[in-house]
Amino acid sequence: MLFNCLDYFICYNFCACLKIFIVFFENIVLCDTMIIMKSTIAQISTPIAMGGISVIKMSGKDSLAIARKIFRFKNKQSEIEPRHMYFGSISYHDFTEQCLMVYFKAPFSYTGEDVVEFQCHGGELLTREILNACLENGARLAENGEFTKLAFINGKISLDEAESMIDMINATSNAELKASSRVFKGELYEKISGMQERIKDAIVNLEVAIDYPEHDDETKGTEYLEEVLTYCKNELLKLKATASDGAIIKSGINVAIVGKPNVGKSSILNALIGSNRAIVTSIKGTTRDTIEESITHNGFKINFMDTAGIHESDDEVEKIGIERAKESIERADIVLAIFDASEKLDDEDKKILSILKNKLSLNIINKIDISKNNTGVEGIEISALNKKNIDNLKDLILNTAINHKIDFSGLIITNARHIEAINEALEKIEFVLKECKFQTIDILDMLTKEIWQILGKITGETENEDIISGIFAKFCLGK
Prior knowledge:
By secondary structure, the chain is of the alpha/beta class. It is built from 16 helices and 15 strands. The strands form three sheets. A seven-stranded mixed β-sheet has the order 5-6-7-8-4-3-9. Strands 11-12-10-13-14-15 form a six-stranded mixed β-sheet, with helices on both faces. Strands 1-2 form a two-stranded antiparallel sheet.
């Protein structure tokens, strides 16, 4: 009898502990790189400002239950159908707001969880109060990018697709938007995961040779490995070749405007950007610091840097400005060397030409509205005052900096992290290909797995938690 009671006591407590254990694990999300406690999150998904509408979003298993607590249907509803818009009201503290509600049932939602969205009038205080109603009824405030992070964890998007979404949101040119959209459609993921599948097949062949040497020919395993790695190398080289175009698309073309004082550099900047950004006077040395402004032209971003006039000076402030002008030349993709059409070249002009001897540059002859070209220098002739040939100058800048047509029908790598992973994978592939003739099959197996892991950094399959969290922290609140 005593044994039966003790047995029952142990069994009861074991079951109680097991129940707690199960409840705990029902409320966490496991993935390769992180463990995240499940909860229902809420946040405002539209800019917090006065506007036509605001959207408040919830994601999590309690989303619908919280919505039922705070939302009153105009017509009594017993069942809420997913992807249907419902009209009703939310009453909270001292106000009642008529709004719309839509429910997305897991897994057919952005995050892969149950999602509820409220669409209300776009008042800043009103929007915050509806968010507070969600929080008081069981939701917690979502962090930056947490909705998209859940989409990644739940397999709705890959890491490269999430990063391209950030790039699309932050795009400042049509070229950047086009390039990012191709990655967002999954084209990079498809290429990289395809390479990983081939590498996985090669690893399987190697491990069969390791486990069953009497039934497998090691030579065949290494020959297939070489074939696979050569294919991956060629594909990665194609992607890497787009990186220079990608840098231009992502960051824009950096253009330094240089010349001696009073040749019209600031007037040219103002003409190029279409506004009076720089101060223009007849006094030499008006510009003492670098002024930077950007425009988009034919879908590409151009970053102009108006610099201080380069000349000999004893003025300490001017000296600093001149040094900064020289620094701008160093980081520029292309330099506009400005000359006064009414003056012959002097020693200061010649010094500027010598500084630019090994730099991609264009000679710009300004002030043709008051004089013909007396400089003796060939270049594009413009009038900053009358805006003559300014559009032609913009075209020339683009054509000079991008001396070929960028093909937007294919993938273009614009993300620095992706380029870094591609370079790392290429370096490892080169090493393994050299070692194929000399290393044992088990060493080749280990090295090949490293290549698979490096490629996984792009898709997110093998990237560490800190990197992933850092990427999603770049998103705004509510995304």
